Model the fold of this input.
Amino acid sequence: MTLRTTTIEYLENVSPGDGSLPPRAWYATSDAARLSLNGRWRFRLSETADAEDDAFAEPGYDAGDWADVTVPGHWVLQGHGSPVYTNHLYPFPVDPPRVPTENPTGDHLRVFDLPGDWPADGGAVLRFDGVESCARVWLNGTELGTFQGSRLPHEFAAGHLLRPSGNVLAVRVHQWSAGSYLEDQDQWWLPGIFRDVTLLHRPPGCAADFFVHASYDHVSGEGTLRVDSDVDGRVTVPELGVDTATGASVTVPVEPWSAETPRLYDGVLATQGERVALRIGFRTVELRDGLIRVNGKPVLFKGVNRHEWHPDKGRALDAATLREDVLLMKRHNINAVRTSHYPPHPAFLDLCDELGLWVIDECDLETHGFTEQEWRGNPVDDDRWTPALLDRAARMVERDKNHPSVVLWSLGNEAGTGRGLTAMAQWIRGRDASRLLHYEGDRSCRDTDVYSRMYAAHEEVERIGRGLDGGPDKRRTLPFIQCEYAHAMGNGPGGLADYQRLFERYERLQGGFVWEWIDHGITHPGLDYAYGGDFGEELHDGNFVCDGLLFPDRRPSPGLLEFKKVIEPVGIEGDGVTVRVTNKQDFADLSALAFAWSYEVDGESVAQGPLTVPALAPGESADVKLPEPPIARRPGAETQWTVRARLAADTAWAPRGHEVAWGQWTVSRRPAPYVAASARPVSGGGRITLGPGVFDARTGALLAVAEVAVGGLRLDVWRAPTDNDNGASWQDHVRHGPLWRKLGLHRMRHRLDAVEAVDDALTVRTRVAPAGRDLGLRTVYRWTSDGDRLKLTVSVGPEGDWTVPLPRLGIRFSLAAADEVRWFGGGPGEAYPDTRQASAIGRWHATVDALQTPYVRPQENGARADVRWAELGGLRIEGDPEFWLTARRWTTEQLDAAMHRTDLVPGDTVRVNLDHGQHGIGSQSCGPGPLPQYVLHAEPAEFAFVFSPNV
Done:
């Protein structure tokens, strides 16, 4: 005797479900009636799948004591249960297709009336665009079916069950199902009905499905249109004079679609029962001569991976948020998106068509957790699961096949290898030969059209670009993309410019997709944003879920600003006489841009004007003469040219004047600050006075500069390790963050060896070293003054066997108060040795609070690069050479200890770091560390700062 029921059996059934209609194309509008069932639903949560019977689905059931939830939405973000985050570990025992007894199950009820004008003829379809992870559906007490495939659409025939009023829609949603084994996608596990629920009228004679084929011949300039439909109809495109039958081809001159020039033609598919609006983009995608070509031209992807995320609503995104994402991408020069790791909300692809983004549309498939079992039992290599895999592939392709923005289909992500993937590839090729296939896990490229990798280091990428990577014969003939690179977790990613130079140098390298678009922080009243572990999860991967170019609230991070600069579509380089402008686009000329020059003296613009640049075709360059410098050069002044390219007119994605690209170069450099050593140290009362400087006579410590108190000035080598400093625990490469801490660089001791006040200088000799180690830094502070200014020269000599680089090298001190900071140097945002492309030289100002970068997990941040001088807290500080400036209202130690933003409590005291060097950032949180040229080696160094009262 068994107590298990069919209700439970469908959860562990490897088939995709039952009762749903065949998948078909999604479209935004038609003249057929539709009724949104989004809104407030009644809700009951059970701890197990079998805790309640299905009586709630019957009309007349009293759900008066149930809670309410919003659909689309996730119940765990609405006060019912808790989210769970894992990167790849399944949060339940791995025993496919079995699921845990503890299986949160949400019963949803919605009672609705049909509008008074709802048509009486025809049928109706009930559509679910996304439910995680398994659903059972009833309408007016009749079961419609069950389904799995969380990020995929499912429709049910419902017309025969509808009533004019009092319709009862009941949906039982289970968090865990057999489908969960196919959805291990490095994100929060969030159950619920999180995309739209819609009732669609299906008039007699309407098309159940249609396929828009719109190719472009780049030689003739003509497009060929054919719309296949399961019922006869006509296709009209008024702008092209097209009026033809479905299934017939027509060829006409057209403007092609591309991500740079997203030309769409409005059309209509008219059948006996329905008129469907079409947005048609003519383009041809092909693999030719070893390259991905669109409309005959190779393309360079400057892309991002995009999970769908909102800090309050999870993956339940509204139309405004979808549009905001695309606008932000376009405004930051991004031209491509990989829909990691599932098809996005269908309206997102409409926006990609409209505004222009290349899309790799990825199937809702990942089985990453099977790596822990060395891929034993992996569903993609188990024939029992193949129908579910094919169902997922079909639902993606059929839904999204009419989008010109989709240029590659992706079989999924990190699902190992197996027969099921081959079956998916074969089905997709048979259904749609107009696009290419991608799957990173297919290293042999047996089933794919592109060689794809994740997080390949610069050196390996260059070998691939040069064709020296080896591998199977087929792979060596294919283009290469980094489907994930530059892991944007915390401060970083570093090395973007170095990757881009490789992409632009070698034709085979067709770009990449930064991981990823947005931090998946969840709004939390006590933590600001929560990440893995903050909800008491048994297994979790911490803040690895916060690895985006946007903060959770969609504010751009410094990483996004750096990426925008690195991937600019226009190259601008110059000297004192001419500027070379290069069009780096693949399709568009430069006619949409207006160029302007600025001549700057000591960081301030003294003259500006327009610059006439020809409308260069893609790939073309031109040398444009700059005007004569508008003023004579002042002795000792630093002069620079800056040339900017801005939109000449409003576009659909940004207003006129939006900056697209800029270039800057120095004509004459400033001289090093000079301080004559004319003042002599004077001792008395336990103090030593040297010019404006006051020192402790016993320790040689600086106490004040004129009236400005200064505390704790000393050498500093420690920074709060970034996520990229710490690296990933599974990596074989050296991870510097843990080594720094093991060595004790966070607890350096400062031994005083001598204080010498003689002749024209005060010299303090020290040794800075960690306890328990025999290495150290012999450090000499030499103070001189001309009576008005105070110069500090720091000499550092390493002692012992330094086998690891330094986090930073400079001095730190505290000021009793400071608010406004002004500086001449790089800005306006933070920069580090391998993240400084977006740092422009100029005069900048900000509050101390505004200098901070609010990473979800606090870490080293906020450095300004190439600083010539800075003013804060009553002091003016000049550097020889230029320096890195950081100022905070907490100590580095407090920053290091903090786990969330709310752990940092600002005080009145401001902690200042003036650094001669900073270690690079890299992207070792899931990729390579800093390149050798950005490593801060422990080696002899000398640098100087000049302090004076800021009056």
